[in-house]
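Researcher: Sequence of BAH domain-containing protein follows. Predict its structure.
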Amino acid sequence: MSERRRPNRPTAFAVSFGPDDVPVHDPGSVALSQRPTPSQSGATSSSNKRKQLYYASEPAQPKRGRRSDYWPKRGPPPPKHALSITGNEGKEGIAVVPGEDPEERLDTADGEPVRILNGFAIYNPSQGFELVSLSCLNDGSKQVDFEAIGYVSPAFVNEEDADQDDDDDDDNRDLHSRWRTTRLECYSIDYTRFHEPLYVQTRYAWYILKSPDVAYAATHAEFYRPHRIAQIIISAAMEGEISTFDEFEEQYVDTWDDLLEARLRPQDLCEAVPLIQSIVGDDATLQQRAVASRPFVQAIYALAKNSSSGSPYIDRPLVPADRERNAGRPKLKEGVTLGNLDLAVLRPENQNPTHVTPLLDNLARGLFHERLYVVGPRTKRPNRREMEKHQKEIRDHVCKLLYRNLEELPRISFPANARLHDEYWKAVCIREEVYQVGDCVVVPRGNWNGTQGGDLPRDLSVSEVPEYTTLADYFWLGKIIYIDQRLKTLHVQWFEHSSKTYLGKISDPQELFLCPLCGTIDLKVVPVLGKLTVHNPRPPRELAPLEFFYQFVYNQADGSFTDSDEDSTSDITTLGPPDNCQVCLAAAEQRHETAPSLSRDELTYLGQTYHADDYALVRATEGPAKVGQIISFHDKRTSSPTVTLRLLGRIVDLASSMAEGSLLLLHERELFMTDAPPIVVKAEDLLKRCT
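Model: Prediction complete. Tokens:
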């Protein structure tokens, strides 16, 4: 007998504004709301007081120099939606989970299977399949009959099988059936273990909740975010590796969390403090380990307390953890003989601490949650506040240059005492600032090698110019080689910012690479927006945010890095312009090596030597190459040498005029002389000698 579905009645929001106006919540952020009216506050005050855990006070005037919107409010729950049930879903207790093998699956110590639920949602079948939050399971005052739905797959003891199953989940969910569980009994989170996922339990199995369904993402994020933050803080305190708040902030804040599927924001820490206090206060083990007395935990408590008076209040209290309903945790089978021994050593609990050099420690900064042990003296690393200050200085400078780009072309002048010889100068004045040979100039990005530079933003807001922007996002950097006063141009050798190479995130934001590319900047067309301080090599002192250095030459063609040996190029730089450009000289040398060379009665081209009466393959506009006999060479003073040839024909080209029986005697390499007049071709059209 099929289940009777209750009619899906519209919500109050849908009646007022229509179903299409229901806002779509960002699953990675907490829903925000405006401050409620007095009538709204009074309507909910009595119920909130009974279970209130934490309220911030009324919003005060922001302090000087502090953003009033730094701590967002916690808004009302996301709008309620009804789940679509097709009736084709597998039912727990009746259907069989595809691929689940009792010998290979991951079980608890009590023999209950552990399964994975992807694309999940929690709903109330007695309320028209309305989507609900797991936080309602903690309400011990009433019995709730919540169920879960999603794409089910078994959890395996062998991690290789689990990885293959994850790939199937990502690539094709149809490989797993959509699954409805029976009534959920509880949810479980082990707050003492960083990598422990969120579980829910039914009478038949435990389920690991992975990615939520799109329609359920906002509801799940509202519930799971404070629990995940509490798990991160408590597990870090249990490990004992982190002491100060600066260390915790450097390792976790503003970094991507895989379980949360979002970045950890500073305000998340304050919002999770009531939940952390509830968990620590009810757990004797956590009290014995003095979790709450850790310096960084105390700093988070103080941060939440201080932020309450100067930030918007929290509209809804966080529901404390119900220790009785959440006491049960899945105790997985353990043992040396369980699973693959080769893979068991890869589990986090069986890993030895990773030891790295100071250089690798700097490169790995912010990319790993694992604590790295440095062998040798640890280099000085700026804290997060210093980094934010440096980044703000960089963004302000980027905005300053973008604003200059909106102005008219600046007036340029050439100092009389800066002339070298003829039309070449060693300095030029732009915006009353002197630019000399060897300086690094900043110009707007342009079109190069088929890539469009794009228009620079005219709006300097954060939406157009992100907070973590770099100079290389909008500008090109070049080293002045020489200055042409007559043409009013700068000849530069280009730099490449390290973040624009394949180094990506592990690059040094203050490192540049010289490129084997040069170009000419027309000061009558392209504005020079400023100049930078660039060192070679890197000085031993700490660099300012707008100081850069370079030590290598980066070749994008082959992805190689070579030393920028200044000693080897000193002879070139002592030459006068325009012969002091190393890139131009290297290109000229390459052209000379690859250009045809004619001497007396022989022609040399691309390693091949040709003489009169030799046979050669000649480039053809279409079809296979032509074959010709060289008659003579001609030296052109103003262009490339030419070659006079007598063409030969292929016997297979005459096949259409031959009898069918004689075709068996033809050879594809057989040639014949022709009486066609000789032809003249460029030496570059010769492909190779042939016999």
